[in-house]
Amino acid sequence: MLSSRAVPWPSRYTELAILILVLAVVSGLLGVVTGGRLLDPQSVEVMAFQMPLLGMLTLAQMLPMLTGGIDLAIISTANFAGITAAFILKGVAAWYATPAAVLAALAAALCVGAVNGFVIAEVGVSPIIATLATGIMVKGIALAITKGYVMAGFPTAFLFLGGGSLAGIPVPFVILAIGAALMALVLNRTPFGVSEYMLGSNPTATLFSGINTKALVFRTYLISGFLSGVAGLILIARFNAAQADFGSSFLLLTVLISVLGGIDPAGGVGTVLGLVIAVMILQVVATGFNLMGFSQHLANALWGIILIFVIAFRRVLPGAGGARS
Amino acid sequence: MVRGRLRQAFRRPEIYLLAVLIVLSAVLSAVRAEFLTRDNAFDILRNYAFLGILALGELVVLVSGGIDVSFTAVATVAQYIMGVIISTRAINNVLVAFLIPLPIGLTLGGLNALLVYYTRVHSVIITIATLSIFYGLLIFFTGGTWITDLPPAFVNFAQLKVVQFVNEAGVAYGLSILTVLWAAIGVVTWLILNYSPMGRKIYALGGNAEAARRAGFNIFRIQLFVYAYMGLLAGLASFVQAGLAQIVQPNAMVGRELDVLAAAVLGGASVFGGTGTVAGTILGVILIAVIRNGLIMMQISSYWHDAAIGIMLALAAGVTAVQERRRTRRLVRIDVE
What we know:
The complex is a heterodimer. Chain A is an all-alpha fold. Chain A is 73% helix and 2% strand. In chain A, the strands form 2 sheets. Chain A has a two-stranded antiparallel sheet with strand order 1-4. A two-stranded antiparallel ribbon of chain A has the order 2-3. The mean pLDDT of chain B is 86. Chain B is 74% helix and 3% strand. The chains are: A mainly alpha, B mainly alpha.
């Protein structure tokens, strides 16, 4: 959808090689500058707790972008799911509060995803506008039912999702790893995944090869909604609080990470591995800057510069650049 | 022929917008008498001048087939530099203050154009990156402190009314200079889009980029114009916003990108480029303003505002999409027969 692709996107392997190189250079530089503190176990643990939220949101952004669309509602959906869970956690004291809250949050997120999918696939509204509208709407509903207040203080059983560890590995990290692995499996090993890539590179050809593209688009936004819901659960479990308009700056960041991770905004190209490495790059920059006492704002600026650098680098790559004119 | 023209008029989104606006205003006036007063109308037009100017800039970008989301950061940078200069040097001159943010906006917009043209990546991605860069660097270097000591000439200018009335309660109200600025930009944008060669090239580029390129248009020059114009209007809007707020606050504008985009789209501009009008965009901004104002007057909690605007936008987009599909179907049928 975001077409204007005049340049072929570099191949998968060059792409991953560049990303790994950037990750190595950034970690190395920041590791040296921070005097090794970036790579000590404590910092790594902090990163493993912080990364999953952004990682999960980016996974939610990935499928729509692969199909050439975009989901601007993911943050609102995550907060909406978080608030749904918070209402149950605050209202129910029984043992089943946590599973009920998780299920309700995911159901709420699926509802938003279904609305997006319906409006985009059946009504035919462009993804940018459709998800912009539902994003504003869902945030508005969340604001209205919470009256803008923060809902805080959840049971320990639930907080395990955000702050617990399994065999020394942070639970949110485990959730992200499972999510990423499943996503990679689905994209590479199922007809659905292959169709997603096809849809992204040529929707008309996909339709004419007998694939129900409407159902495909619907499922894309349904899954995006579901993953946003998972991110919402990680979010409120990590901060022990839910709010209607938390983390709106993450929205543009997920698009940025997706592109950094090699997803062609025009659709059809991108890997889960690239995405995960891109999230790691951003996390390393954020943590490194934090250790050096630099502001998050400088890190934000640097992320933008890295993105432009990566895009420009792709342009001059042999075989990848060279405008057809 | 008259019927044909009428039918054509009814296909324009502006007509629907105007109808919705009239119905909405009638309902609001019936419920709340204060709504249909001249001071309220002038108030709305003043308070939304800032958003309205930005929406006009976004319109030009949308028509060219791009999307700019960096303008809030551009505006913030331009406004902050203006604020620092006029407050530390105590420049008590509005014209000087007015001239500071414009070249800054123009330059940053030009930078966007360079990046969009040379990377050939969709402008929404590029401007997401430049949003982070401009805003991140500004806050890093300034610490995000507010500037409250704006010189009196500046403060007074924003209160200036071109036409002034006094209501029954003896309170002065009238047409604000900021509204006049918005209207002037509306006229300029309309002239550019409809009556200048550049304007027609912008529509051509947005309608079909490949065709425009093959027709020999200088794509770079068009994009440079489009993004620099957006930057220029961002600078101007930042001047207006500082006048409205009477304070320079770096976090006041960033985060409102989608509001502006929503207003332009509500006004009939397409994210695919090639369509959109100045009248539609201004009506889109006024519609959002009336919804917010009306909800306040009906004493509906402000927390419902976003939900209402989201629903409005979804409806508008849905209607447009269905209309579009009907039109394509009609074309297909003609083809077959």
